[in-house]
Amino acid sequence: MVDLNSLKIGFALTGSFCTIPEVLPWLSELVAQGADVTPIMSEIVYSTDTRFGKASDLICQVEELTGKKTIHSISEAEPIGPKGMLDILVIAACTGNTLSKIANGINDSAVTMASNAV
What we know:
The protein has helices spanning 20-32, 43-47, 55-66, 74-77, 96-103, 110-117; strands spanning 8-13, 36-41, 88-91. By secondary structure, the protein is α/β, with parallel strands linked by helices. Strands 2-1-3 form a 3-stranded parallel sheet, sandwiched between helices. Strand 1 (8-13), helix 1 (20-32) and strand 2 form a beta-alpha-beta unit. The chain is globular, with a radius of gyration of 13 Å. The mean pLDDT is 95.
């Protein structure tokens, strides 16, 4: 088993709303194993209510699990690289749109900015 006690993990969520409930247990598990987890959300996830849940409920759940405020804007994500805030970044769920932007170096959301900073 890997020791996660000293690992700083960014956990980012993008607009694949139907899969977000499936990845939250993984977020919880990382925290339970001692990782220092920083939540990151695309602006759409942070502000959009869907049939899968309210944005405010998701934010509360994630912040309660991690004990940290959610990074949700480009300006909040920009210091991640220069400050060495993360060792690794998990993007789950990751939409095809976000994946294509990362592959092409496009930084137009908190998640894509974070991915290019790690």
